[in-house]
Amino acid sequence: MEQLLRNRDNYISEFAGFVAAAPSSYHAAAALAGVLVGSGFTQLDETEAWPAVTAGSSGVVVRDGAVIAWRVGEDVTPTSPVRVFGTHTDSPGFVLKPQPDFVADGWAQAGVEVYGGPLINSWLDRDLGMAGRIVTRDGAEHLVSTGAVARIPQLAIHLDREANSGLTLDRQRHVQPVLGIAGEGTSVLGALCAAAKRARPAILPEDIAALDVRLFDTQAPTRIGVHGELFASSRLDNLSSTFAGLVALLGEKPAPGTISVLAAFDHEELGSETRSGACGPFLEDVLARIRDGLGASAEDAARALAGSWCVSADAGHSVHPNYAEKHDPRVRPLAGRGPMLKVNANQRYASDAHGAALWQRVCDEAGVETQEFVSNNTVPCGSTIGPLTATRLGIRTVDVGVPLLSMHSARELAHVDDLHGLAKAAAAFFAGA
């Protein structure tokens, strides 16, 4: 991973592979854990006792579609601070409803529900797969991912002459994908069982008790632009931050006397109020068990948190050339000019003056250009895991992220320098800048 921090093109190539391997939050969690375990991290089970924490030790734990991993620096004590790089693994889109198979006018279709706040029109007329987890009646969990099996077809212009004047999509009637022609053995559950190739014995549709499965765009991530400087992909919000944190955690040792933590939560696009979301107890639980492994008292733990930092990394907005009026008239972040410090007076982002100073030090140390983002006063500001983590733990937090065009589209756009720059800045953060 160290060489990825030094080589932008190799980093982008590996990132493209990571996105392709992570079409759902559950796949992202499995991919993260697989890379970490392969790099020597110990995967721990929440139901079992955890070992003592010592200098140089490392661990990873998966909770549904979320992952928390840590790496312990030299000279740690019960009051050693943590440096948390926080991200999320989910993206807006569509998830399958219960009893998803239905037939309409001779077409086999799948019932879906809108997840989060996607740009719905961007999902039309794309070759879609299905990915997530199925749980069989015996309680076993299986990851599944199909090829291109579905499409949400737009109504032809001949049947809606006003479509280019203003497209209105009903979230129930107009977004149900087609899978094929009815009566040819086409079914959602059948496709998912066929995708569960590693299951032994083979899974049959009647074996499935429930599923957590989403649609995903099967088009591969790719570099575009005249000079190949742009990166077009699904799920840049927020796998761009998740992969950056992974590479930084593996590529840079923690500063002496500190503990580096990657916290990749699920369900951020829904508000994070789940057991695997940032509002839940996952990070608090893990940090408490790490403290216990250090033999820390309640006083020690409080002192450690008071000296700790969280960098909440989530994608942000580049100025859009066709909608310039939607952005602040003076603060104009642009793709290619570095990851952004995200600021909001109403604390929709957790950044403050101390956080801004930390982020500037981190970027200076990494040799990475940075810029600022603030919303136009007439455009409501989104939020991140940053304020939630700060509220839950009382930890100093700063919000940052890579500037995108087309955020929440089925296919988003970033600059390769910004993607790589975020990883280098994350590494400098772990190193104690």
TrEMBL record:
<dbReference type="Pfam" id="PF02127">
    <property type="entry name" value="Peptidase_M18"/>
</dbReference>
<keyword id="KW-0031">Aminopeptidase</keyword>
<comment type="similarity">
    <text>Belongs to the peptidase M18 family.</text>
</comment>
<keyword id="KW-0645">Protease</keyword>
<dbReference type="GO" id="GO:0006508">
    <property type="term" value="P:proteolysis"/>
</dbReference>
<keyword id="KW-0482">Metalloprotease</keyword>
<keyword id="KW-0378">Hydrolase</keyword>
<keyword id="KW-0862">Zinc</keyword>
<keyword id="KW-0479">Metal-binding</keyword>
<dbReference type="GO" id="GO:0008237">
    <property type="term" value="F:metallopeptidase activity"/>
</dbReference>
<dbReference type="InterPro" id="IPR001948">
    <property type="entry name" value="Peptidase_M18"/>
</dbReference>
<protein>
    <recommendedName>
        <fullName>M18 family aminopeptidase</fullName>
        <ecNumber>3.4.11.-</ecNumber>
    </recommendedName>
</protein>
<dbReference type="InterPro" id="IPR023358">
    <property type="entry name" value="Peptidase_M18_dom2"/>
</dbReference>
<dbReference type="GO" id="GO:0005737">
    <property type="term" value="C:cytoplasm"/>
</dbReference>
<dbReference type="GO" id="GO:0008270">
    <property type="term" value="F:zinc ion binding"/>
</dbReference>
<dbReference type="GO" id="GO:0004177">
    <property type="term" value="F:aminopeptidase activity"/>
</dbReference>
